[in-house]
Amino acid sequence: MSIDPASLRPATRLVHGGTIRSNFGETSETLFLTSGYVYDSAEQAEGTFTGAVEHYQYSRFGNPTVGMLEARLAAIEGAEACRATATGMAAVHAALLSHLKAGDRVVASRALFGSCHWIVSTLLPRYAITSEFVDGGDLAQWRAALARPAALVLLETPSNPMLEMVDLAAVAALAHAAGAIVVVDNVFATPLLQQPLALGADVVVYSCTKHIDGQGRVLGGAVLGRKKWVEETLQPFIRNTGPALSPFNAWLLLKGIETLSLRVTAGCVAAAAIADFLAGLPGVRRVWYPTRTDHPQHALAATQMSGGGTMVTFEVDGGKEEAFRAMNRFRLIAISNNLGDTKSLATHPATTTHMRIGAEERARLGITDGVIRLSVGLEDVADLKDDLARALSDG
Ligand SMILES: *Cc1c(COP(=O)(O)O)cnc(C)c1O
């Protein structure tokens, strides 16, 4: 693109960022479904390998369609560089393992996506990397944990499923003083509602599977950060371990991302309305939504997020039995542990996504048996309200 993406507003970057056209002048991004590339000469091949010539080498290293997605994501995030990966977990794994070495120490918020929690609590210690979890919303715990040197801080805000928030600017300052880089899993906020790099984070990771595809079709992930870190630390790890994103999936994500702003804007309006509606329904004990004034951290949400997001969490009276009864009575809302889809999806975290962490850890995180997590889609809000009211009623 000849215009500097930094001069464009976010919605425009979503549509135009990173686009490169072939000599056919196509409007839509081209799908370069190729694993390899040919050279005009042996000298050009040699130059490509020494780095003297810029030329694609092999699709595990780079691919034009994947490259367009990376450039577009970087433009949206305001990041110097991006590398796409096959899944969100490949992105988290690469960001952590490329940076860490034996003897390092990691501090993480307790309320992490299940597989992120497993990497920190179970995988890293196998390589002599120690880890400590803190309650992400409690700055005193961050301060205590980061009073000692650390190499990396990993956190998610708002968290899954209780929508707990971490004060990004404050934790970044503490982390940097301890010698750590800050890696933020920004999936729930999306790049449109929260910009962790501007608040002091060093690296942002995404599961593109969620709002970026947004239509429940493909898996994908991304790591964004400074050019030097991406090229010198992340890139050798990715190139040699191979979590490459398929060009086909990159192409779908490029098309999905064009409507991200429309979908997330509509989703925020609908989710806020549904949160208020749920709060007034009999049988609903409590609702969590970042911008509602009864959210304990709504003031923090107002400073670091520009919208509450598309996720609503609520607790019904009557524990698992009532939660299951309500979910089994949904006609429109589907039972699924996925999120960020055009279709509204509900999950019971205690028996699905957060089953493996155990009852004690669930209790610490506030994930009771009555908690239901709702990913709000693009249906008419009135139909969603009807479905929720009927499912939660006695009749
Ligand atoms: C889904 C998700 C991931 C993992 O992404 P995959 O694409 O499923 O590998 C990581 N973090 C959060 C917050 C997620 O929602």
Tell me what the structure shows:
The protein is of the alpha/beta class and 395 residues long. The protein has two domains: 5-30 and 62-257, Type I PLP-dependent aspartate aminotransferase-like (Major domain) (Aspartate Aminotransferase, domain 2, 3-Layer(aba) Sandwich); 260-392, Aspartate Aminotransferase, domain 1, CATH 3.90.1150.10. It contains 15 helices and twelve strands. The site of pyridoxal-5'-phosphate (PLP) has 14 residues, from helix 4. Pyridoxal-5'-phosphate (PLP) is lined by residues 87-89, 113, 116, 156, 160, 185, 187, 207, 209-210, 219, 221.
TL;DR?
The chain has about 400 residues and is α/β, with parallel strands linked by helices. It is about 40% helix and about 15% strand.
Q: Secondary-structure blueprint of this entry?
A:
Blueprint: H1 10-16, H2 42-50, H3 64-77, E1 81-85, H4 88-99, E2 105-109, H5 114-126, E3 130-134, H6 139-145, E4 152-156, H7 168-177, E5 181-185, H8 190-193, E6 203-207, E7 221-225, H9 227-241, H10 247-257, H11 260-279, E8 284-288, H12 298-304, E9 311-316, H13 319-329, E10 334-335, E11 345-347, H14 358-365, E12 371-375, H15 381-392
Pyridoxal-5'-phosphate binds next to helix 4.
Strand content: 5-15%
Q: From the coordinates shown, what is the CATH architecture of the largest domain? A: 3-Layer(aba) Sandwich
Structural class: alpha/beta
What is the rounded distance between the termini?
Answer: 58 Å
Tell me the name of the CATH homologous superfamily of the largest domain.
Type I PLP-dependent aspartate aminotransferase-like (Major domain)
CATH topology of the largest domain: Aspartate Aminotransferase, domain 2
Main sheet makeup: 7 strands, mixed
User: Secondary-structure element order, as H and E?
Assistant: HHHEHEHEHEHEHEEHHHEHEHEEHEH
- Count of helix runs: 15
The percent of residues in helical segments reads 40-55%
Shape: globular
* Beta strands, count: 12
| Order of strands in the sheet with most strands | 1-7-6-5-4-2-3
Mean pLDDT: 96
Bound molecules: pyridoxal-5'-phosphate
